[in-house]
């Protein structure tokens, strides 16, 4: 009897777990009718402010990110560009810290990349800071908080953290609470990153919020194409043949037709239909599928609207303007400059300023010393003439390390041509300038100290 009771409890747990998985798998992608914060905070029965009518707007955005290829691609590109290639500084002690900023042995770039990803995806990013005192003195650990798990308090001075807001009434005791800096409790605090949004006091909104309909359409187009290719019964013609067959023979014909026309590589085939008791001549009906053009136009409009809402550049998303294939590198570099100026640097300033503030106030590091090193996605290597930047021997070494070096090979080919052909001895020299992107310049150093002091 005891074993039977244990078995029944185990079955109940299994069923409950299956039910949870099933409910998570089915997600409604319908666009929320109203994206707003409650106007009368005092009437809320909870201590936190819901984000969306059902308090699950961040979860919706996370699911939408997994459904749209264009939206996910732009978000990933913005995150990568904002994170830069690496963090640089001249202080050896700060350099050691940014290589290992928490107990999980994450680097500052690892945490910063997650913050940028959340900021672009949800319009909000949260950094958890844990102060400690060790053998080497006081220190601080920096952690990224998943934005889908965080809700703001009604006082706007603390956050509530819950791993499952879908069932918060069942595990309310698991909800934790942390203060927002400069308030500190139990050596912990949170920094909330968001942009200004009219009518929103507690949360920010992502750039692409105006394109939610187009993002949902992008997902539906992919779903429609997949369904069409997998299950689309679309032969190129139907041939009706007069004949005589029984019911079993007709069913067999249907089964054979399904095998031949459903699945990969079955578009464009011909379907034959045998008509019982009909002596009329065979009839051939040509099927014309003219829906592709309209779907391609819809895909182009959808992609363009998503990219525009992100304030992004089409060439950075792999969409090159027609007639500019030969100047693809130049187009990408121009687009990169625009993205850096209008999107990336503003976001990196916002996120990095919060981190600098902590490093300056809590760890006494010089905030001017921490910068992000950016690298453009397309280099100038393809546009540089090798003979103008490499000597003859350097070029020979690139071709084959075993090639013997020439006696006069330490000169450029251009110099050699001048010696042979230029009797007047006039020489020309080209200076190749390289563009570099730094998060801060010297003109801002004084302002940084004043802001954080």
Q: Main traits of this protein?
A:
12 strands; flat; alpha+beta; three-stranded antiparallel beta sheet; 453 residues; disordered N terminus; 4 domains; 13 helices
Description:
By secondary structure, the protein is α+β, with helices and mostly antiparallel strands. The protein has helices at residues 2-25, 57-67, 69-83, 92-99, 108-122, 212-231, 247-261, 292-309, 328-363, 386-389, 392-399, 413-421, 445-452, and strands spanning 86-88, 124-134, 137-145, 150-152, 158-161, 176-179, 188-194, 237-243, 270-276, 283-286, 371-374, 437-438. The strands form four sheets. It has a three-stranded antiparallel beta sheet with strand order 1-11-12, with helices on one face. The chain has a three-stranded antiparallel beta sheet with strand order 3-2-7. Strands 4-5-6 form a three-stranded antiparallel beta sheet, with no helix packed on it. α5 (108-122) packs across α9 (328-363). The longest helix is centred in the last third of the chain and has 36 residues, at 328-363. The chain is flat and about 100 Å long. Mean pLDDT is 78; it is low at 1-27 and 418-441.
Strand order of the largest sheet: 1-11-12
The main sheet comes to:
3 strands, antiparallel
Secondary-structure element pattern, one letter each? HHHEHHEEEEEEHEHEEHHEHHHEH
**Structural class by sheet pairing and helices:** alpha+beta
Low-confidence segments: 1-27, 418-441
Span between N and C termini?
71 Å
- The overall pLDDT average reads 78
The gyration radius over C-alpha positions equals 32 Å
Oligomer: single chain
Number of E-state strands: 12
* Bulk shape: flat
Helical amount among residues, as a percent range?
40-55%
Number of domains: 4
Strand content: 5-15%
